[in-house]
Amino acid sequence: xxxxxxxxxxxxxxxxxxxxxxxxxxxxxxxxxxxxxxxxxxxxxxxxxxxxxxxxxxxxxxxxxxxxxxxxxxxxxxxxxxxxxxxxxxxxxxxxxxxxxxxxxxxxxxxxxxxxxxxxxxxxxxxxxxxxxxxxxxxxxxxxxxxxxxxxxxxxxxxxxxxxxxxxxxxxxxxxxxxxxxxxxxxxxxxxxxxxxxxxxxxxxxxxxxxxxxxxxxxxxxxxxxxxxxxxxxxxxxxxxxxxxxxxxxxxxxxxxxxxxxxxxxxxxxxxxxxxxxxxxxxxxxxxxxxxxxxxxxxxxxxxxxxxxxxxxxxxxxxxxxxxxxxxxxxxxxxxxxxxxxxxxxx
Length: 347
Hints:
By secondary structure, the protein is of the alpha+beta class. It has helices spanning 5-13, 19-29, 42-45, 61-67, 103-115, 143-177, 182-207, 214-224, 227-238, 245-253, 257-260, 263-270, 284-287, 295-304, 308-312, 316-319, 327-345; strands at 34-38, 48-49, 52-58, 73-77, 82-90, 119-122, 129-133, 136-139. It has three domains: 5-140, YojJ-like (1 (3-Layer(aba) Sandwich), CATH 3.40.1700; 144-270, Up-down Bundle (Ferritin); 285-345, 5' to 3' exonuclease, C-terminal subdomain (DNA polymerase, domain 1, Orthogonal Bundle).
C-alpha cells in the first residue's frame, strides 16, 4: 500500500543535508535522547505542562540539539520554522493504546494519537530516531542502510519487470491465436500490482536518500516505464464494459500479499468466475501501437467490427469503410495486423 503523503513529506524534511537531519545527527552523536512534537496549535498546547516558552526562536539544528540536552520534550512548529516549547512535560490521554514499552516512545505514540501531529522520538541507548504518526510508526535509517535496501529492491523490481513483459508477450500471442483465457489477463495485472508495491517501497526509501536519490530515480523510472499504460489497455480490452478501472485497481491494491499471490483471488477482483474462461480482446491495445491514430478513430474501429477476430483479419477495403480511415492508414493497419499474426505463428 502507498505510504501516507504526510509521512513522505516528513521524510523529505529529514533527508540527508536538511536542518532536521543535521539536528538528529547532533543528538545521536551527543548520546542524547529527544522527544520532539512536530506541530503547534491549541491541540498541542493542551498536552504541554511546565517547561518554558520560547518567544520568536527560529529553528536551527544546533538549537534543537542543545535543547535536547534537557529532560523534557521540545515542540517545533515545523511549518513556521520556529521552536515553541522546551523542557516541557507531555500529558496525552493515558487511556490511548500504545504498543511501546519505553516511556519516551510510549509518550510519542500517544501524543501523535492525541494531537494528530507527528512526533519524533530519539532513543538515547540505541541512537535511533523514530517518527510516530496517528496509527503509524516509522524508524529512520541511515542513508547507507537505505541505499543497500533500495538496490536490493531494484534487483527484485527488475526481475518482476521481466515476468511482467513475458506475461504481456504471452497474452499478445494467445489473443491473436484465439486461445487467451482469464488466466493470461490475470497474470499481467497481478504482476503489475506486484511491481507497483515494490515501487511504492522504493519511493518511500528514496525520499530518505536526499541528493543521493537521483540515479535511483532514473533506474526506478526506467523499470516501470510504460507498465501502467499497458495495464490500462489490458483492462480496456478485457474488463466488462463500464467497469470502473480505478475501483478495480484500488481493490487489487487492497489485497493482502497472500491473496494477491493467488490467481483465483485476482480473477475474482477482475470479474472472472474461473481462470480458464475464454477471453477475447476488443483490440484497443493492438491499435494503441499505431502512431498518431486518434482515440476517437480507434474507438470507431473497435466498434465497427464484430469482435477482434474480424478486426485483425479485415481487408484494406473493409478498413477504409471506417470513418477516419483512408487508404494509406488502411494499408498501415493491415501491415500491423500481419506482423501480429506472424509473431503469434512464429512460436
